[in-house]
Write a structure and sequence with these properties.
Blueprint lengths: L16 H12 L6 H11 L16 E4 L9 H6 L13 H4 L9 E6 L5 E4 H6 L2 E9 L4 E11 L1 H7 L7 E6 L23 H4 L6 E5 H5 L4 E6 L2 E2 L9 E3 L12 E7 L6 H5 L23 E4 L6 E2 L7 H4 L13
The protein binds ligand MTE.
């Protein structure tokens, strides 16, 4: 399994939920079309739509809106077109497949090369001062969105555990338990929290990612706890996910349970899957093509046509100095 450029994937444009549901009724009324298209439709007809109400609690006392330059995508767009391979490799199926994912209780274990290793419970992370950050989000596949995240800088956690002088990198890991589910009190179908096996997804689980320590300490790098003022929906990486706005979206690892400080560049899921296509850095860069498609332009979900992709996804002024003297073609 590898990523495909956006144009080669499901051609269907994102639609608001009511349009989606109307379309389903239309489909039910008896539309039967030719082969590939019909297969896609049939799949939807026999699978229930994502839950209508996304039940997430509001996040109170949000401090500031820091990066609000562009109009955000709608809540429906952000929550119905997702990449979360643990649940599904089909973007429009993730919300439904992740609907029963149990995210309480939840902890993040932070350790490795730190003076004060510790476990953070979700309520503690939610008690940190939360900020709204409206960021561009650029997927390596060639689509983009603008997302009003709620969260706090990763630095807030790292300052508490105090990295040692040997610590140079930060490794992140997603929850994965394809067999038992994480909450023994909750019995889900097959007891699996809805997650599928690596075999079906085509990539290794648990999903892992990493940053250099200075990238992780950068103010733009956040742990997102919510979006649009509410706690994260499951499909977006509940209850906490990383967001690194100047890197391709796959660096923004979801549903994080472990953070480990290391002295070596940690392995990352897509680099393991295809090292010639996905590097450790994966900074958004219109001048460095993916081996199978150009990265010069992107399609903003909800818009027609394409727009130019910006170096470092438009955050050049803030982050270019991190890569002074580095050949961005070699360290892609
Ligand atoms: N994290 C995990 N654990 N599993 C995944 O499959 N997909 C990545 C990233 N984080 C992924 C993940 C990719 S490829 C992208 S583009 C973004 O999540 C998508 O985030 P979104 O669904 O909130 O837009």
């Amino acid at each position: 399994m590898t990523f495909e450029p956006e144009t080669m994937q499901e051609k269907e444009k994102i639609t608001p939920e009511h349009v989606y549901l109307n379309r389903r009724n239309f489909i039910r009324a008896g539309l039967v079309a030719g082969s590939t298209f019909a297969t896609g439709l049939a799949y939807r007809v026999f699978n229930p739509p994502p839950p209508k109400e996304i039940a997430t609690a509001e996040i109170k006392d949000v401090k500031t809106t820091v990066w609000a330059a562009e109009k955000p995508n709608s809540f429906e767009e952000i929550t119905s077109y997702n990449n979360f391979y643990e649940f599904s490799t089909s973007k429009t199926e993730v919300a439904r497949a992740a609907a029963d994912f149990v995210t309480r209780p939840w902890t993040i274990e932070v350790g490795g090369l730190v003076d004060r290793p510790r476990v953070f419970a979700i309520d503690e992370l939610l008690s940190f001062q939360q900020e709204e950050r409206v960021y561009r989000f650029r997927c390596v596949e060639g689509w983009s969105m603008v997302i009003p995240w709620i969260g706090f800088p990763v630095r807030r956690i790292l300052d508490e555990v105090v990295p040692t002088s040997e610590a140079k990198y930060v490794a992140f890991e997603t929850f994965y338990d394809g067999k038992t589910g994480m909450n023994p009190d909750v019995k889900l179908p097959e007891g699996r929290n809805g997650m599928q096996s690596s075999l079906f997804a085509g990539i290794d689980f648990p999903y892992v990612e990493g940053l250099r320590l200075d990238e992780a300490m950068h103010d733009l790098t956040i742990i997102a706890t919510g979006l649009y003022g509410k706690q994260l929906p499951n499909q977006n990486g509940a209850p906490v996910r990383l967001v690194v706005p100047w890197k391709y979206g796959f660096k923004s690892i979801k549903s994080v349970v472990r953070i480990t400080l290391t002295d070596r560049e940690p392995p990352t899921t897509w680099n393991i899957a295809s090292p010639t296509e996905y590097g450790f850095y994966s900074n958004v860069n219109p001048n460095v093509a993916h081996p199978r498609w150009s990265q010069a332009t992107e399609r903003r979900i909800g818009e027609f046509g394409t727009r130019p992709t910006l170096l470092f996804n438009g955050y050049e002024d803030q982050v270019a100095h991190l890569y002074d003297g580095m050949d961005l073609r070699k360290k892609f």
